[in-house]
Design brief:
Elements (H helix, E strand, L loop, with lengths): L4 H8 L3 H8 L7 H14 L5 H8 L4 E6 L4 H15 L4 E6 L14 E5 L12 E6 L13 E6 L1 H13 L5 E5 L9 H12 L5 E4 L8 H16 L4 E4 L2 H13 L9 E3 L16 E3 L2 H17 L7 E5 L1 E4 L12 E3 L2
Parallel strand pairs: 1-2, 1-3, 3-4, 4-5, 5-11, 6-7, 6-8, 8-9
Antiparallel strand pairs: 10-12, 12-13
Helix pairs in contact: 1-2, 1-3, 5-10, 6-7, 8-9
Length: 337
């Protein structure tokens, strides 16, 4: 039998109206009471009738989460948003990038959070918050007109390159997919600038973009061939940690010691980065703060569509670990950029 709001009210000993207010996010309900009602609703397995709610309120109670890519950091950020949704009156709908325009549920949400580019067809349909890496080079184009979170990577990437050079790495290769190899891309831009500044020759290793998000195996395939033909660089600057982990596999298979023979620098600092041996040096953004900011931006926009466009900027920092230092003893250091 389907659980109703009346069942929840009877279980707690409150009015059905109060339950309805709490489940709809009404500000008149105290946070403590709202959390109690939400918890009881979850315990009973309550599933709201979204079509009925939409007819009455004009809202579905759903927020869509869109990812342009399919990396491990996307999954970790999705988990952050799931935690935020659990403590709210909204349900989270995840939609893969290829489904953005054609997914039937994508057009019936109250708002959307995009990590990456927004499909133009969706912009007028509902409130949007975009989370974008800072691509403000000459080729990046105009910034979107939605609420926007900018994630700055260039200065931390420069810091990472300077760190590798300070470790006496002379042959440093940049390892990424073709779309992240241009002056508009902050990691690539930082790599080229610091190599030029140090009087070193750039070395670019291109990985075919994996449509299924399997950067690790694609990196492994590429590097086996590359190292056999060109030998080993002193260091690899990988544009994300999945690529760095793929590089780890090949270096170990080919008996290359990390970092003493080849150092590895990653980017995005996924949860497992610090669990590898040696622990992976990476560039980290404050993902919990970014996700919370995006959520608050969107929910406030849903409540008040006439708010002016807002922009919030977050800067990355370099997390130095054992994969890039030749010292025998080393404590993890945060180099804040």
């Amino acid at each position: 039998m389907r659980v109703t709001q009346k069942d929840i009210a009877q279980k707690i000993g409150v009015s059905q109206r109060l339950v309805s207010y709490a489940l709809s996010g009404d500000a008149r309900v105290s946070n403590a009471m709202r959390q109690r009602i939400l918890q009881e609703a979850e315990n009973l397995g309550y599933a709201p009738n979204r079509m009925a709610r939409a007819l009455v309120t004009g809202r579905t109670g759903q927020i869509a989460l869109y990812f342009q890519f399919a990396t491990t950091i996307d999954h970790e950020m999705a988990h952050q948003f799931q935690k935020l949704a659990l403590s709210s009156s909204y349900d989270l709908l995840s939609v893969a990038s290829k489904q953005q325009v054609h997914h039937s549920d994508a057009m019936t949400v109250d708002g959307g959070i995009f990590y990456g580019s927004v499909a133009p067809e969706l912009i007028p349909q509902f409130p949007v918050v975009e989370m974008l890496v800072d691509l403000r080079g000459k080729s990046a184009g105009e910034l979107p007109r939605n609420d926007l979170i900018i994630m700055q990577l260039e200065e931390a990437s420069r810091e990472g390159m300077r760190h590798l050079i300070a470790q006496n790495c002379q042959r440093i290769a940049y390892l990424s997919i073709p779309t992240m190899m241009g002056n508009y891309e902050p990691r690539y831009r930082a790599y080229i600038a610091e190599m030029h500044k140090a009087g070193l020759s750039a070395e670019i290793i291109s990985i075919q973009s994996p449509g299924d998000g399997d950067y690790r195996n694609r990196t492994e395939e590429t590097l086996k061939k590359y190292f056999s033909l060109h030998g080993f660089p002193d260091a690899l600057f990988c544009s994300n940690d999945d690529i760095a982990i793929g590089a780890y596999r090949v270096l170990r298979q080919m008996n290359r010691q990390i970092p003493y023979e080849t150092a590895v620098l990653g980017c995005m600092d996924i949860e497992e980065s610090k669990d590898h041996a040696p622990a992976l040096t990476s560039i980290r953004l404050p993902y919990d703060a970014i996700c919370r900011c995006a959520w608050e931006m969107l929910t406030s926009r849903i409540e008040n569509p006439n708010l002016p466009p807002r922009t919030k900027t977050f800067s990355a920092r370099l997390m130095i670990r054992q994969s890039t230092t030749c010292k025998s003893t080393f404590a993890e250091t945060d180099v804040i950029t």
